[in-house]
Amino acid sequence: PSAIGEAEVSVGAAELGIAESGTIVYFARAAVEEAAIFASKTHISILNLERILESPSELEREAESALARGLSVFLLTGPSCTADVEGEIIRGVHGSQNLHVILLEEV
Predict the structure, then answer these.
(1) Which of these, 37, 27, 45, 44, lies nearest to 4 by C-alpha position?
(2) DSSP code of residue 50
(3) Cα within 13 Å of Cα(64), Cβ side
(4) Residue 3 has pLDDT above 80, yes or no
(5) Using an 8 Å Cβ cutoff, are 54 and 19 in contact?
(6) What is the b/e burial string over 47-64, where b = at least 16 CB atoms within 10 angstroms of the residue's CB?
(7) Can you give the pLDDT at residue 60?
(8) pLDDT band, very low/low/confident/very high, at 90 (cuts 50, 70, 90)
(9) Residue 62 · residue 15 · CB < 8 Å
(10) pTM here?
(11) If DSSP codes are grouped into helix, strand and coil, which group holds residue 21?
């Protein structure tokens, strides 16, 4: 593909995971990193098991540190989902249609 938005698959190393909600957390330094997370049809996240938090409340300190360093913080909890006026469900309107997570014991 000639542009990020045309990619079928993207792969990223997630900073954190949140067990309670199944959320993947990314910190991004540049707009191209942000686009790569959301623009492909399928996104694969690689996450170290040691970087999984139990609940969203544990994220505050990590997020504040990232923001202080000028990074953006992104939370992904599966594909977006919306419905049109007729109630038809549409997935992946804002971001990837598919999200896969690979958990590693050691990174």
Answers:
(1) 37
(2) G
(3) 5
(4) no
(5) yes
(6) bbeebbbeeeeebeebbe
(7) 93
(8) confident
(9) yes
(10) 0.77
(11) coil
Residues whose CB falls within 8 Å of the CB of residue 106, separated by 6 or more in sequence, listed in order = 48
The HSE-up count of residue 53 (CA atoms within 13 Å, CB side) is: 18
Given a cut of 80, whether residue 99 has pLDDT beyond it is: yes
Q: From CA 3, how far away is CA 15, in angstroms rounded?
A: 25
Q: Output the furthest CA–CA distance in the chain (Å, rounded).
A: 47
Positive or negative, the CA dihedral 15, 53, 67, 93 is: positive
Structure token pair of residue 86: 């007729």
Q: DSSP assignment of 63-83, as one string?
A: HHHHHHTT-EEEEE-SS-EEE
